[in-house]
## 1
Amino acid sequence: MERYNFKEAEVKWQTVWEERRCFAASEDADRPKYYVLEMFPYPSGRIHMGHVRNYTLGDLVARYKRARGFNVLHPMGWDAFGLPAENAAKENKVHPAAWTHDNIDTMRQQLKSMGLSYDWAREVTTCDPEYYRHEQKMFLDFLEHGLAYRKESWVNWDPVEKTVLANEQVIDGRGWRSGAPVEKRQLAQWFLRITAFADDLLETLESLERWPGRVRLMQEKWIGRSQGLRMFFALKGRGDRLEVYTTRADTIFGATFCAIAANHPLALELAEGDADLAAFVAECNRLGTSEAAIKTAGKEGYDTGLRALHPFARGRELPVFVANFVLMEYGAGAIFGCPAHDQRDLEFARRYGLDVVPVVLPPDADAASYAIGDEAYLDDGSVINSDFLNGLSVEEAKAEVAHRLNAAGAGKPAVIYRLRDWGVSRQRYWGCPIPVVHCADCGIVPVPEADLPVRLPGDADLEAPGNPLENHPTWAQVDCPGCGKPARRETDTFDTFFESSWYFARFCSPRADTAFLRDSVDYWLPVDQYIGGIEHAVLHLLYSRFFTRALKQCGYLGIKEPFAGLLTQGMICHETYRDADGGKWLYPEDVIGAQDGSLVHATTGAPVTVGRSEKMSKSRNNVVDPQAIIDAYGADTARLFMLSDSPPDRDLDWTDAGIDGAWRYVNRLWRMVAEPKAALVAVGSPMPGDLSPAAGTAHRAIHKTIANVSADLDKFHFNKAVARVRELTNLLEDLDGAEDGWVLREGLETVARLIGPMMPHLAEEMWQRLGHETLLAETSWPEADESLLEEDTVTVAVQVNGKLRGTVRLPKDSDRESATSAALDLDNVVKAVGGRPVRKVIVVPNRIINVVV
RNA sequence: GCGGGCGUGGCGGAAAUGGUAGACGCGCGGGACUCAAAAUCCCGUUCCUUCACUGGAGUGUGAGUUCGAGUCUCACCGCCCGCACCA
């Protein structure tokens, strides 16, 4: 028996598609456009399974929409700046540019072997000056429009490497390479004013109907709009006041302390005269800048000795603590603590023996005996122990406090956001240079547009400690564009989220001399379907939404939302294996099945402990290299596996058995066409006047499958679409009579067309073997014959008291009475009713009949 | 710590709007073909009970709403993702 030669077929069709430029996109006002985009990869070396999944999903959408008549734009590029290139430079003494370009060459070749329908002529690489010069121009425009500014902010500083560390490079408060305790340092850095759009970014979320609800919710929480009160506490023995922010002004009478952040100006001032406080502040700073690290640390505080005066309760003094859980970046960097109604404050109060005074009484509680235990009370109630607020609701009390403080000049209502401005400065080499010059006389001077791009030097020393651009002997030396005197270039580069915040627009006119052509972005944008990992739910997606607004404000384009539709895919997981004794992680290829069915090490024969399926990662040794799969089974098999079984937004378990199953199906399909069971009629033969009963059933099933698969693809239920095609395949295999030749051809052609977006090489091969001279890639999607979709009888379930007792076949849309009598006639129903009086019969037409006795 | 999500057979997963739980696949069991194996094909496969019919239980756990709950409500348990310098 002949086998499907995928190696030959896949290369053959890839070549044909490329030669015929099947996937080249150009603007065409007469056809509806559809822009499909997958998140472009960081060129880390080789593609991984996550890429295979992401790009399989995108390619399916692109090919499907193309078949449906859309003018499809489907581009690919490289998010090529980033930290790993610098790490590789340090570890392997290879230049980041060379390393990156090698990786891109490898990965491009790998992606091409998957048969993805990209318009490769639009490929962009973000580390190319032809790309990044445009974002330097954008930055200058942002500066001009007040969207970029400079301020001091905190970074993780490694004193040994003399470098700023990313949060992921800080492990237990130490630098990952040096092991030295990390210090927090303040540096002047560039920021983009994303908070200027906070309200708009929040409100427009609602209109993003084709985004997953959870992503919208996460962004909403991230922006974190809150309506509260800025209030000012007089400080005993000092002239200045302490500003705090609160959303719970109603609990002011329950306040028993104030707390300020470790790097609050007041804390720093007091620390100068208090060595213990200085030590405590230093201790807080060792936690680094990550919010998770700060918030998970045990609640610690230091009593500064200062006393804040309660604004209403005369003579009541609140101790002022420095506390490690108060963030300088949020609100005023200071709070008042009301332990009874805030869990963090409660834990802090218990630890330091502070009073816990309940001021909101739950609806069903008794005022005299009510006390707080281990849990703060957060809900509504009536206010108690609060002088003039007593008896009010929480909302009424908030309003009253705001009113009184405002009148007294001790507070004013304020809307604040959790969202902070986007810090874009990075003290790194492998990023886009920030195009400004620092001049002793003129201050900060933008690099003139004519001098762009500011290019990275090729000869930076990447191994010496510190920032390579800062260390470079000549690169930063430049004459001030303003006064002409010697000055210094900015030596920071952009955050790499900068590049990914506008690449979708660059793809519209990737070779344009400007960032993009207005006509092109007007035609192609917004992206109709964006596909990528859920891990980007907030940062990348929010930055891109902001960037688009900023570009609009600067006149680059006319839209504010870059992505109309979003699909977030799940991760790829795989079983994990460990040594039974040592607990060492083992590679899947070193694990084999023993004769008794247990798993053992392939070379040593030692028993292996099987762990649960976890996200593929190098540290757990549970990665499977997609190249090995593509080499052994072909791209179509790998693609099919990615689409079957798991819905795209859920995690996918990689299993060897699953890939074998996909492989079997690929071969089965091929055999059905290579060795058809019945003689097929010629291409384009008209439908015979009458079909055999089996053929008639198959004919209806074919059209139902077309309708169902189309609906499933529209809803991204790819796993269900695969299941439906398999069902049709099973049915077609039962056709073998000579009179079925016409329907068999209809079925096989339909299958080929339906799997076209999933397994494009196999589909082309089938199409050709079925006698077509056209390309399936250029063939339209099949249409279902509506008249074949409706059944005239339906199976209706019959329940007695909610328990299934049988089914009846009924004409579609039978009336209540005939349905009821048919149901009551069933033997099983008679038995279950057992002569009891029927109280009620519920009839849901064409679905269910429930007899209640 | 905060924010978001997920939980259905041995396994991955199906079940618009509350209406026949388990489509499709994997695995497993039995059979056919074969000297044998591979490949392929056929039958079966939620669990308990039964030769079978039948009956009972069942969607992480516990309550609730309903004629009817995988789906809605509340509480709990477990796992996963993000937290602003990884991308």
## 2
Amino acid sequence: MPNKKNARTRHTSVSQRRQVTIIEVAEAAGVSIATVSRVMSGSPSVRSELVERVRRAADELGYRPNPAAQRLASGVGDTIGVVVPNLANPYFYDVIKAMNIAAATEGYQMLIADANEDPDEEFDLSTNLLRQVDGLVLVSPRMPAASLRRLAQENVHIVLVNRVAVGVGLPTVAVDNYSAMVEICGHLARLGHRRVVYLAGPELSWQNVERQRAVEQAEAFGLEVQTVPAGASIDTGHAAVDRALELKPTALVSFNDLVAFGALARLQELGVRVPDDVSLTGFDDIPFAAYVSPSLTTANSPQRVLGQRAWQVLHQMMSGAEVDDTPLVKAEVVIRGSTAAPTSSTPDRLPSRPAAGSAAPSVH
Amino acid sequence: MPNKKNARTRHTSVSQRRQVTIIEVAEAAGVSIATVSRVMSGSPSVRSELVERVRRAADELGYRPNPAAQRLASGVGDTIGVVVPNLANPYFYDVIKAMNIAAATEGYQMLIADANEDPDEEFDLSTNLLRQVDGLVLVSPRMPAASLRRLAQENVHIVLVNRVAVGVGLPTVAVDNYSAMVEICGHLARLGHRRVVYLAGPELSWQNVERQRAVEQAEAFGLEVQTVPAGASIDTGHAAVDRALELKPTALVSFNDLVAFGALARLQELGVRVPDDVSLTGFDDIPFAAYVSPSLTTANSPQRVLGQRAWQVLHQMMSGAEVDDTPLVKAEVVIRGSTAAPTSSTPDRLPSRPAAGSAAPSVH
DNA sequence: CTGTTAGCGCCTTCAA
DNA sequence: TTGAAGGCGCTAACAG
């Protein structure tokens, strides 16, 4: 508890009024606190006259139950926790937003934690949240399976999003990354591409593992695949391009859209044209993928569905229902302007200018 | 409390263990619960030998204090609430993320609520959150001043972000929208633009009021300004373009970047070239503004600073410190590719094709 | 420095 | 259908 009570600033002029408790309501209504409690929780076994009286007293006094007390007494609350690797990634927002809406519909609130792409922090935040929420959603967790297993042992309901962990016994909601990525590679192969570089995501990311597996699998289609480590954000994509180009690929396959954006910016700085000189693909189809230029060929990972389903599963667990193991969610490949057939004259030497003029976007 | 306890699914195989309480730790360590409490809260007045014994007992048993009980007993907690109009707007990401990081550094957690651009829900969510958090941040609230005033009366610390409300007595952290928008208009005027349409944001948004005020003020520069209502999201921008074009402007000034993105997409569908046929500006400089094509002229609203400052102010209030009224944060205008001098041949009739080929991004 | 003891506000048997 | 009373787990005086 980092806090002290009883603060006062020149902004808080009005005399702070204490919390209205159930006792005051009971007195005002001339009933016992038990009755008030019953009325507040909508118990049917209260004479309607009393219900009326209590209701009136309650909102005249502006009574609102104290959640901490409710939770302490009843053992349950109305909030769920969510841990994400990085709050700055739009991909997660859609998942979170969908989840939040679904949860709010049933009266639940959301405690959010940002792990900053750090697996250890992820675990710490999770254990911490565990104590105060009724359910926990881990979105794309990077923490090791052993950590997940420890969490699974705890007395809280947990669901995993976009992380399939075998032998952990946690229900999972995930996208079929593999198939979609195979399709993307197939698309490139059909266009006539041969040399492809995969701009890899975070090593510990299940999604990265799946996508990379697919890309490598694509060698069966005659693609020659090499991998360059990048990450999950715009700047890692930007930074990885130079190494990737040394391998003289005709196409760059990015871990996700953000990496692709970064790569695109760098390519433009270098004067390498997309898709004329090199094709580029993303993954996730975040809302901006359609608005960059050239618009990005990517795979539409249905975030909203994921979010809704995650809540649905969690809710099932919390209400003691049997949990359906949900199948992988399909991701649709979206062909846009950033991919095309390779030209015969793949540039063997690159332009030496470090950056084009004012048109070149700067990366922060 | 929407919840029931005691759920069981085929996933939760291990026998759920009860919460370890302070009593068990006390017994295991052979001390009183008061001592355990002291040790856990780092009180200096405990013999180091006992500290040691308690610590060992605590983590052997895996003891973690129950936050609900702590909060009930002490009256304070360690979580702050945040209400945003729309979680899907990237503008808010950075504000939230910065705030979250700052708060986490001091041991605070974040309860998030999405008001879905609905002022009433905003108020409800706020009053609800009020009961269970130690501080509340309202980001760009659209609710009426009267509602804010009621909230201000409550026994919680509140800070406003990007909403200046006079006579409400709530500390505020905000961007200087007005000056930046005046600058944007000046930029257009210097380029030689005369007829400008403002794609307005949400009516109840203070930021919109400020930006619109600035645009209208720009008539002093010789700009002829007309306003078309749009909103705060991509699709509202997309939808507003047709009406805007009827006014035959040489430049479109958008409420924010998202609206500009939507407008850009629609303009491209119509075959109207940016900036050749019409210039376009945004506001906020979200990370993607540099990556669309043409890259967007906009104003860099320093979200991170806002987030940090919001936390700083809130923290000051919560710790009873005097609150500095912070001055408006300056927004820098960023000139990019979407603005240029108007050509003499402003298209009087538009191309009739409803949409260009595969290059036209689709809006969802 | 340490232990005892009231509560914090509410829920929930258990009787009536 | 209602009320009385015992906790929920912890903090914070207050004694010693």
